[in-house]
Amino acid sequence: MIGSGVGLKITKKEKEILPLIRTNTEIINKHYNSIPKNKRTEHTTLEFSPDNTIVKIIIGDSKMGWATSLRYFFELLTANHFADISTIIFNYDNVRPKGEMLKTFGGYASGHTALVNMYEKIDKVLKNNIETYRRLETVDLMDIANIIGENVVSGGVRRTSEVILFGYDDEAMLTAKNEIYTLEEGK
After folding, report:
1. pLDDT digit string, tens, across residues 126-138
2. Which of 86, 125, 130, 136 is the most exposed place for a label (fewest CB within 10 A)?
3. DSSP label of 176
4. Is the whole-model pTM more than 0.90?
5. How far apart are CA 108 and CA 128, in angstroms?
6. DSSP string covering 96-116, please?
7. CA-CA distance, 60 to 92, in Å (whole number)?
8. At the topology level of CATH, where does 6-174 sit?
9. Where are the domains of the chain?
């Protein structure tokens, strides 16, 4: 298997370019009901309620479908024309069940729970502050990048490698991984 890592530059200057993000949106993970293989779609789509306050992200069964769902998620939380959306519902029914063979990449499907975990963790990062509209901190952006990387690995065959460059004066980034692990008996 051939692969490569991802490099990110997350500085205070870059974070200021990003839009404010709404943190008051309710996230709902619809109960998973696997769709038969011949009826699944690979593309992710959006369905809006008649009053445009609720949107359903119907996630397609492909790498592009997963990536598109993530792009839609952040667009729904940042774009002004989506400001009235109060609820995002994730529909994972098109995602193949855990253990099903992957046709082109090899290996086995991780199932929908990898996506559920990713969106729950990202939502937790976004809501770690009580402000309704907020600018993410550099350490938040790093956490989100790591969460996405963790999701990529979930299939069992893939691996992820990340390097994150940050400003020399960013104390939060410099110490972000401190005290994650503890030594027991000096080991």
Report:
1. 998 778 888 999 9
2. 130
3. T
4. no
5. 34
6. PPTTPBPSSS-SB---THHHH
7. 8
8. 3.30.1620
9. 6-174
